[in-house]
Amino acid sequence: MATRAEIGKKIQAGRKAQELTQQRLSELTRINKTTISEIENGRFTGSFDIFERVLDAVGLQFEVAQKKHTLPDWDEIEGMFSEDDQ
């Protein structure tokens, strides 16, 4: 799954590809320019509705995928089970 920062970068790239400023995107979506900035910088924690409106405006959509489970690498495993030398 993409992080908020990765989603924000994709939204920013989509906006710029359409030659839209944050101000113009704000006008098109009726979402505050500050909120659009927060989204693009990965700091937005608001509603899905707002994300959806911005994504739609720049020609993107959310995609749901199975969660991927990854195992820690060997160094991480050793650290989990090491005893403190005290």
Structure, briefly:
This protein is mainly alpha-helical and 86 residues long. The protein is 56% helix and 0% strand. It has a single domain, classed as Orthogonal Bundle (434 Repressor (Amino-terminal Domain)).
- Uncertain ranges: none
Major sheet attributes = none
User: How many strands?
Assistant: 0
Nearest-integer average pLDDT: 88
Q: What fraction of the residues are assigned to beta strands by DSSP? A: under 5%
Reading off the top of the CATH hierarchy, the class is best stated as: Mainly Alpha
Element order, helices and strands? HHHHH
Counted by DSSP, the helix tally is 5
The Rg value, from CA coordinates, equals: 19 Å
At the fold tier of CATH, the topology name is: 434 Repressor (Amino-terminal Domain)
Tell me the number of structural domains.
Answer: 1
General form: elongated
